Amino acid sequence: MGENKRRMLAGDWYLPDDPELAAETLRRTELCAQYNAQGPLTPEERDALLRQLLGSVGEGVRIRPPFHCDFGRYIRIGAGTFVNFNAVFLDTAPITVGSDVQIGPNVQLLTPVHALDPELRRAGWERGLPVTVGDNVWLGGGAIVCPGVTIGENTVVGAGSVVVKDLPPGVLAVGNPARIVRALGPDESGPGRPARGGAAPGS
Description:
4 helices; globular
């Protein structure tokens, strides 16, 4: 393993313009192109491609193409999770998505961090901070989860929200930056239950 890949995997500052990382990017490019193709792929063929692309895929995971990532192999997705169209998962650090998660269209899970110092940024230095999404989370359409963020299980993030810091389990958070609106309980709206007030999370 080369120095830049070692530093990237350790969460240290590294230079992405590296032949070893470029080879991994080419692998991702080819697999994503096949997965996102408009051709007549069967569900079984698409699932097999997804398992080649990602580090870990639970049973019953569905990701609607197009789907985009940096490497793929540093993404783990738990069983029963659904990812809608045009998701972007940038995995220069690990991205862990739990089981039974609902992810709306155009959601971004972002791990890369660029240097704030202009000279270091011009030189290309960056690092990655892990993103973790707990079981049974719902991320509304267009939500952005920033580097280093953990979202607790059963939490709901409203459409278009930008999550810049950790969210605890079982809350509704909306806005830019996302702020907790209230705790969620077993009496929330659903089949046979009346809707409560608050911002709609979105698809």
